[in-house]
Amino acid sequence: MSKSIFLIPVFVFVQHAYAQGIQFADGTSTKMDNTFLTLSSSEDPTIEGSRYLNDTFSRARISLMPSQIYAVRYNVFGDEMEFRGTDNKILALNKNKISAEVTFLDTNITYSLFEYKEDDDLVSRGYFTRLNPTGANIILKKNVVVFLKEKESKTGYDPYRPPMYKKVKDRIYIKLENEMPVLLTQNKRKLSKLFRGREKEIINFLNKERINLSKDKDLIKFSNYLNNL
């Protein structure tokens, strides 16, 4: 990744939303306890781009309460599912208290919440889509938005770049049975080391089938192979 790309924290004040009102997509509302957090953030208007997958709220269901339809948007940069609450408050699912799936009805895309390992082995919780819907071994895709700092013109000839959010290539993770998701390396030999005692078998399959670890259809084929070992 270019050195000009920086990940910055989202400055958000969060409090538990005890008895907080949540608004359904049809305009009605109800009270929810301990499931949602209240988000309060101020965005710098000079920042271009968007931290969201889609700026507008869309119809969605949550696996915890599948009978209701909510107005939801995915804050990719902050890795939060934001819900429209009563009195124009923005709420987020309490990721540390629940495990849930959020399905956007207009696209039929489901985001699942997983505890996963980041590059530095720190453990986080975040939202992923599944490339293979079934099986104990799963290939996961994670949307990514990064923050680019303001770049001043140094000579007067090079263009000024304002601070901005920018969507970049999705990151691919692999979740093996009873393990946390980890970033899927493009190096086949390094990948094979995740399968102790079966390294040669994995390498042979990847080479024989000419698996491209950056293509969805090949990753699905690989996951099907793993789930039939």
Any overview of this molecule?
The radius of gyration is 20 Å and the shape is globular. The relative contact order is 0.14. The chain has helices at 188-192, 199-208, 216-226; strands at 5-6, 13-16, 20-23, 29-32, 36-40, 58-62, 70-75, 80-84, 90-93, 101-104, 109-117, 123-130, 138-148, 164-175, 182-183. A hairpin with a 7-residue loop joins strand 6 (58-62) and strand 7. The chain has 229 residues and is mostly beta strands. The chain has two domains: 12-184, no CATH class; 186-229, no CATH class. The longest helix is centred in the last third of the chain and has 11 residues, at 216-226. The strands form two sheets. Strands 1, 2, 5, 6, 7, 8, 9, 10, 11, 12, 13, 14 and 15 form a 13-stranded antiparallel β-sheet that branches. The protein has a two-stranded antiparallel ribbon with strand order 3-4.
Large-scale geometry:
globular
Q: How many H/I helices?
A: 3
In which range does the helix fraction lie?
A: 10-25%
Averaging pLDDT over every residue, what do you get? 85
- The SS-based structural class is mainly beta
SSE diagram, text form:
Elements: E1 5-6, E2 13-16, E3 20-23, E4 29-32, E5 36-40, E6 58-62, E7 70-75, E8 80-84, E9 90-93, E10 101-104, E11 109-117, E12 123-130, E13 138-148, E14 164-175, E15 182-183, H1 188-192, H2 199-208, H3 216-226
Antiparallel strand pairs: 1-13, 2-5, 3-4, 5-9, 6-7, 6-10, 7-8, 8-9, 10-11, 11-12, 12-13, 13-14, 14-15
In short:
This protein is mainly β. The protein has helices at 188-192, 199-208, 216-226, and strands at 5-6, 13-16, 20-23, 29-32, 36-40, 58-62, 70-75, 80-84, 90-93, 101-104, 109-117, 123-130, 138-148, 164-175, 182-183. The protein has two domains: 12-184, no CATH class; 186-229, no CATH class.
